[in-house]
Design brief:
This protein is an all-alpha fold. The chain has one domain (about 1-205). The chain has helices spanning about 1-15, 20-35, 35-40, 45-60, 65-90, 95-100, 110-115, 120-140, 140-170, 175-205. Helix 1 crosses helix 10 and helix 8 (about 120-140) packs antiparallel against helix 9 (about 140-170). It is globular and about 50 Å long. The model is unreliable at about 95-105 (pLDDT under 50).
């Protein structure tokens, strides 16, 4: 169970601090409207990811077990790629100012719509979370629940913390943001290698 708790928390943290459409919305909304009005948008993944998760699990449940293991290995490669991309962003000194310069939706529903149109949740559920949840479910339904709850609890917490830090303390100025991106890169790399090795070992054990 602890294994799936770590997977859920680690992947959620890395996903939450990655620059992307949702993060752009949050930071630009804080800049335009303040952190108090933006804070509810941290719950938008709970609204947007339900249909994505259901679709991914339904599709994955229809494919052979061998394909699940292949997807798990592919998910590991995908996470390592994201880790490399994050490391390159860290080297290029990406700042929150560039993220907050774009326009953004102004409601929780619109924020959820932004996330639905974002390819990252589809890739995450197809290549990482979906196979992990199915593997956990085969061991114990409780393990699958722990993974999903850990993921979304961490995701909402980190998004809310990002809003508060950016809005109240200025921590997410260049130095703070670069530190989070570097931590994200390390986390993604560790999870990626873990997923890759786990997929290969399970294939060998089959």
């Amino acid at each position: 169970m602890f294994e799936y708790l770590l997977i859920g928390c680690g992947f959620a943290f890395a996903a939450a601090v990655q620059p992307g459409p949702l993060q752009t919305f949050l930071l630009s909304s804080v800049a335009q409207r303040g952190w108090q009005r933006t804070l509810p948008a941290s719950f938008s993944p709970l609204l947007s990811d339900g249909p994505i998760a259901l679709l991914a699990l339904l599709l994955l449940n229809r494919v052979p077990e061998t394909m699940i293991r292949i997807l798990q290995s592919a998910g590991g490669i995908f996470l390592v790629y994201l880790a490399w991309a994050s490391y390159r962003q860290w080297r290029q000194q990406t700042t929150t100012e560039s993220l907050a310069s774009e326009s953004a939706p102004r409601t929780l529903l619109q924020a959820a719509t932004v996330n639905i149109l974002n390819p990252n949740p589809y890739l995450g559920w197809s290549l990482v979370l979906g196979p992990a949840v199915l593997a956990a479910w085969h061991e114990s339904p409780m393990n699958a629940m722990v993974l999903v709850i850990a993921f979304y609890t961490t995701m909402v917490t980190v998004l809310a913390s990002t809003i508060l830090l950016f809005g109240m303390t200025g921590f997410l100025k260049p130095g703070g943001r670069r530190a989070l991106i570097l931590i994200s890169a390390i986390t993604l790399a560790v999870l990626g290698f873990y997923q890759l090795v786990a997929g290969l070992l399970r294939r060998g054990a089959a």
